[in-house]
């Protein structure tokens, strides 16, 4: 099924109407993918080298760098964590263009290749680019549609900075935007962005329940979609009506110090940067060839996790509708401040090597036992910086007679939405759960 055989609506605009069609088109493109990925030593990267500071960086000083980081765990005085981290100071743009077709909201999607994505291609937002890419530091083509995505004069529905994985990134954020286009604007932008399709927002949210279909950046944007679709721009001042237990946090941002990579005691630098006990992840060099993107070939380091992670969000029905069991944590990359996460979130689904990890696994399993229904999806994480990074997401809906009166922090969907629209406080894992929850609500699996 090619572009010419998919649905056509409203003066020739190309539309994908169902989850099945979206899945089929994505698989078709994966089957035709010609990109090749070669694992190479870090010393073989043409544009990357170790700097005088002891960091792995691009010759231009742009894109990102891999640094050594040292952090004292606030919940365990005296426990010092050291590891390589990805330091990406540049703020990228993630944008979904939306329009109204026959009275229904549609989003403009693309099918994007990333070198670290296990299946090569996933469904992506209209515009997804780092600042270095859209400023063509690589010397390649410009990113289509980026001028509109960055425009100050468009009809912006939501615009927020959002955090990414703080176990691997040092305070990385991207700008997430949803921009509403009128009929003429939507026709022009579809022609501007190659191989783009209009898909109902309800279908995109339902597709977050599929395994490895919607990429992380699009899930992040979709998490901000208001279910009532009133679509009025959110005033930042309204955030302060949210749960005061969270906003009045006593936790401080991570006091993480940068150190040379060769000073990390449990890590060794050779052809790759690896943990001595083969735990957590490695930093590996890759060369990419044969893919038509801004540039046709390049090389870069990628973070390669040892195993799949797991994130479980407990849900219950409260007086204000659906409520979520969340917590606030400071991780090694939380240099912007504490982050709101699901109560149960582990970077390694099978890591039982410490007492803390074993207690965490048992607590997660005990909580899920009380769920009437558990919804599960295997999702891929950031494919432009990680290789093969995946996480099992579980949403467990507690029964009426479960232990839902426990003295933890429950927040309503409405409160979480306000915080999410404000930005810069929810973890990417919680935002993925939020997008999946909205998909479950729109498909009728969970009622408000």
Automatic annotation (TrEMBL):
InterPro entries, per the entry: EvaA-like, EvaA-like_sf
One Pfam family matching this protein: Hexose_dehydrat
Limits of the dTDP-4-dehydro-6-deoxy-alpha-D-glucopyranose 2,3-dehydratase domain: 21-224, 251-437
Signal sequence extent: none
GO molecular function annotations of the record: lyase activity
Gene3D superfamilies: EvaA sugar 2,3-dehydratase subunit
Name of protein: dTDP-4-dehydro-6-deoxy-alpha-D-glucopyranose 2,3-dehydratase domain-containing protein
